[in-house]
Amino acid sequence: MFRSRRIFPRLTALVLGALLGVWAPISSAQNDNRLRAIALVKEAANAFSRGDFAQTIRVCQQAIRTDPSYPRAHVWLGAAHQKRGEKESACEAFVRVTKIAPNTPDSRRAARGIRELNCNGSASPAPLPRTELEARWSAQSGVGSLAWTGDSEFLTVGALDGSWRLVWAENGEIEKLHRGEGGEGTSVANGRDFYALGNSLGQIMLFDTRQGRRKERLNARSGQVTTLSWSRDSRFLAAAGADGQLKILFGRDLSPVEEISRGSRAAYGAAWSADNQFLAAGFGAQIEVFNTKNWKSVRTLRGDASPIGFVDWSRDGALIAGTSGSRIRIWNARTGAYARGINIGNLAVSSLAFGRSPLLAVGGFDGKIRLFNAANGRQITVLNHHQSPVRGLHFDVSGTRLASGDQNGNVAIWRIR
Q1: What is the largest CA-CA distance in the chain?
Q2: Helix 53-66 vs helix 31-49: angle between axes, to the nearest 10 degrees?
Q3: Is the pTM above the cut of 0.90?
Q4: Cβ(392)–Cβ(405) below 8 Å
C-alpha cells in the first residue's frame, strides 16, 4: 500500500508528460512542480485559444518559474509573443525549447516558429536607421521646450526668457512672437486649433493656430508647469505641475475638467494613448495611468525609488517610457509589466520623445541625444551637436524628423530614416 502511494504520482507525471510531449524522466523531487506546471500550461492554452495572449504569457511565466525545464511552457510563451508581434521574446522562448528538449514534438514546433520569425538571422538583418543633420540654427534665447506643428513646417519654442515663438523649422525665422510675462517657458504643446505654452510661474497661455494671437491665459497653479500635453483629438489639454497637481482642461478655453492631486509628490510628464482612452502621468517615483472616461486611476507603474522626470507613450500604444535621473524605465502599456531599464551613465536625462515605433530619443545634460530601440533596450546611435543640456526633443507626425533644442539656444533638425 505504502509502495503504491509512492509510485502513483511518479507514473502519473510520466504519463501526462508523455501525452504533452515530455519524454525525459522526472525525479521524485520534480513531480509536484511538473504537475503544477502542466496544469498551468493547460490554463495558458485555453487563454491562447480565446485570443488572450497577455494572459497566456503571464500563466506561462508562472509555469516556467514553477518548473523551468518544462518545454511546453516555453512553446506556448513563444507562440503568444509571436502572435503579439514581439519577435525577440518569441525567439528567445523557442530557442530555449530546442536546448532543453531536442528531438521532441515541442522542439519541432519551436523550430517552426524559429523559421517563421527568422530567429537565426539567415536573411539580411534590418539596417540601422540612417541619421542626417537636416538643419541647424540658433534661437535668441535658451530653449526650454519645443514642439512640431501638425504640418511639420514650423516649431513652437518656449524660451528660457519666457517668450513663445512660432518659427520656421528649416531656418529658425520667427513667424510669430509673444514676449512673455516673466519666468521660463517650460513646456509647449500644439493642438489642432491652439498652441499652448506653460511657464515657471504656473501660467498657461493659448495661441490661435491661424493667426498666432494669444487667446487665453490661465494662472493654473502655484508652481512651475512641468508638462503640457494635448489629447490626440485636441479636445483636452493635460497640465502637470511641480505643485503635485495634474489638471485636465478643455482645450478650447482652458476651463477645468478634472484635477488630480497626489499631495507633496510633484507631477512630471503626461502622455496620452493613441486612442485617447488613457492618460499616463508621473507622480513622485511612479507613473499612474488614468481612464479618460472617468479620470480614475486604473494602473500604477513602478520602477525604482527615484522621481519621474519625463513620460511618453509610444505611437503604436505598446510601451510607456519614464525617466528618473540617468535611468529610463520602460513598461508594457497593455499589461503594466515592467519591461526593462536603460542607463545612460552618470548624467541625468533632460528630455525624452518617442518617434516611429519603437524608436526612442533621449536627451542628456551632457548635450548628447541617444537613440534606442525601446522594444529591446539597445542603443542605436548617438547624435552629437549640442554642447549644453538638451531641454527640448520632439518628433514630427511622421516619427522620422526630430527637433532638438538646448539650453544655449541651439536648435537642430534631424532626419532619421
Answers
A1: 92
A2: 170
A3: no
A4: yes
